[in-house]
Amino acid sequence: MDHARAVISNLFSGEPMSYTRFSIARQTEGDNSHVEMKLSADDEDGGEPGRPEHLHAIMSPPPRSGRNRCFLVIAAVLLLLIGFLIGYLSYRGRMQKAGRCLDGSGKCEVTPTASYLADDDETEEEEVPGPPVLYWPDLRDLLSDKLSVERLEVNLRQRANKYSFEAGDTEDQSTANYIHDQFTRFLLDEVWNDEHYIKLQVKGSSNNKVSVVEDGKEEELESPDAYVAYSKTGSVVGKPVYVNYGLKADFQRVQKLDVSLNETIIIFRAGKITLAEKVANAKEVGAVGALMYLDPSDYRNTDALVPFGHAHLGTGDPFTPGFPSFNHTQFPPVESSGLPRIAVQTVSSQAVDRLFSKMGGKECPLEWKGGVMGCKVMPESTTNVTVKLTVNNVMADRKILNIFGAIKGLEEPDRYVVIGAQRDSWGPGAAKAGVGTAILLELARVISDMVKKDGYKPRRSIIFASWSAGEYGAVGATEWLEGYSATLHTKAFTYINLDAAVLGSKHMKISASPLLYTLLERTMKGVKDPGKGTGNLYDRVGTDWVKTVVPLGLDNAAFPFLAFSGIPVVSFGFYNKDEEYAFLGTTQDTVANLKTTGNLYGLMRAAAEVAGQIALRLTHDHELFLDFERYAEELLAFQEKFFPYGQDVKTLGLTLKWLYFARGDFQRATNALRRDIANSDRENRIVRRALNDRIMKVEYDFLSPYLSPKDVPFRHIFFGKGSHTLQSLLENLEQLRANKESVDVNMLKEQLALATWTIKGAANALVGDIWDTDNEF
Fold first, then answer.
1. What is the Cα–Cα distance from 166 to 169, expressed in whole angstroms?
2. Residue range 698-728, pLDDT digits in tens
């Protein structure tokens, strides 16, 4: 019947009822580029389905004789009959092929369509014409066959014999141009760049200095080449106090010893949490400075190494918080509240060893000792030992480039998955930025080749992104998100992060949105483990791998996508659980040192295959492969944690039942969406697009709408930062039981209200139509 309808439509000069256009054009002024996404009238607000853009005057036809009318009726009947016969013969032919496929008598040419979250791994039938048609198993195998270890090695070799790729400097700009040229050479549909003008804190004309002052005499401990960006500048002096990893629990343990931390210089070792979080904890207790080192027990062979880092408790340019740093925008002087405002420097473990030898005093608890000899918490009260820290960093205006390349989707080009990697690094950055950039280039080459030469026709678009200033806190990625914050959450449905994909060879570390757990699990089952013969990556992580998912940190470029923009993310990599990669963020992060981790290029290929399969599956199927029902499970898990505190809350005249009711509404909303998908006409593109849009909004709807993105940028109630998060609410309930007088009741009321209505709002949005929502709980 499709053919019959086509014949009749052509006969009467029928025009398509809708169109979709996606273009990425270079601007001549201001930004170097812009993304333009325009939908047809029936996709826009207020549009009317089927209404053409230009209405022409309709003239009354001249009167026809009865004979002419009879002739036209006969002709129309004949054309209908011919169309019906053509459609029937075509349909019969397809069914015969399907029969041969199912009974095993011939090659399978048509695969029955299955639900996108079904247990089997069958594919969906491609609608778009043009040989050859690629089904999911063929597509997966084609990706695997095309990925080249040799090409990955060539890409990574760009990092060899280079000292630094600092953001905005010569090597960073040169690499940006190289990536732009490679994307063009790969024949991506569009290649462009975004320019951002940002403020960075860089090394001054002289090195920073750490000294010990004893009885009025100053002795220099160290003056390293490395520095910590966004530190307070100038000189500070204070008593040294060691607090292990700088966790809140570590500070509380020291405070229980009746040690005053005001006006002190805190010493902590790297690991557990980011440097910025350690510094924020030090500032909270009144410290004037902080020193961090690589402990030999965590990072082997690093006695003399000093890492780089940044101390901004946030992402993006801290001098345009919440706003994009495009060249045509001007803002009054403003600073992020996440800037440390205390002096910060990194030192070697050798320098810390010498400092401990001068402190005397009580030795560290056994579990705090690490690998530095003579560990001390603080100097003896009888000594007059202080530390002087001088920071000479300077502010610099830099232009950075984010480089993009796009493969346009055929059916929904204005919906896209983004694959990204950090490009800049302090030092050679082989593991920090080189591996991810190499994988990004290889995926762009391979997937473009599949589209241009092998006939793959993605339904949705794929964008490849190379970010700059990642070392300063995902600045490039965050500025892009801020620049397009009004639309990105309606367009981008997943971000795949390739940074630091190989830091070891024994284990896998995964951070992801719950929406991607099912797809990630399916993908790992289909990728061979390069280190275990015939096994797959799923065997490496185990059946309970979800319990080992690591929360995204501020130093992960995927974090702002999830917590700021509400876009589902996945970030993964190989590492050694018992031994951290020692050279990350140092001048020794070279290709030669990274190769000592074992099977480097085989692991890079496996990581590329995982990322590539995720991107292809998300752009291949009719429905988005996002498991929205997972969040119902996450909410239920939090409800179980809240449940023991019901009586404690009741003593304040409050109740948790409204929060529970909101969770129940969300569960019913997911059930309703699942029914709508099951009962929908999957061949109807308008219906399918509407359902996919409802799936896409799930992540975004967990950003609290009651907070300002400028003041609280990370608004996600599961993964954000601040009192609005479910984790913060749980901590307050725990505090309520431990010490009722210490809890701010009004703040607790606000937390309950914000959490309840954020979840309720997410449920209402998931339902789709306001007349289907239940606003009475």
1. 6
2. 999 999 999 988 889 999 999 999 999 999 9
List the 394-407 sheet strands across, edge first: 190-202, 394-407, 460-467, 412-422, 492-497, 569-575, 507-512
Amino acid of residue 61: P
Least Cα distance to 232 among 328, 318, 150 occurs for: 318
* Tokens representing residue 410 in the block: 């055929």
Question: For residue 313, what are the contacts with CB-CB under 8 A and spacing of at least 6?
Answer: 276, 277, 279, 280, 338, 339, 340, 554
Beta strands in 423-529 (DSSP E): 460-467, 492-497, 507-512
**pTM over cut 0.85:** no
Could you tell me the two tokens for 337? Answer: 């509240």
The length of the chain is 777
CATH of domain 204-392: 3.50.30.30
Contact 282, 313 (CB under 8 A): no
Q: In CATH, which superfamily holds the domain spanning 139-192+399-515+549-620?
A: Zn peptidases (3.40.630.10)
Full 3-state SS string of 109-163: CCCCCCCCCCCCCCCCCCCCCCCCCCCHHHHHHHHHHHCCHHHHHHHHHHHCCCC
Pair 529, 454: CB distance under 8 Å: no
Q: Are strands 289-293 and 309-310 parallel, antiparallel or unpaired?
A: unpaired
Structure tokens at 352: 């810390």
pLDDT digits (tens, 9 = 90+) for 241-266: 999 999 999 999 999 888 889 999 99
Cβ atoms of 443 and 464 within 8 Å: the answer is yes
Q: State in words which class domain 630-772 has.
A: mainly alpha
Please tell me the distance from the alpha carbon of residue 520 to that of residue 472, in angstroms, as a whole number. Answer: 29
**DSSP code at position 59:** P
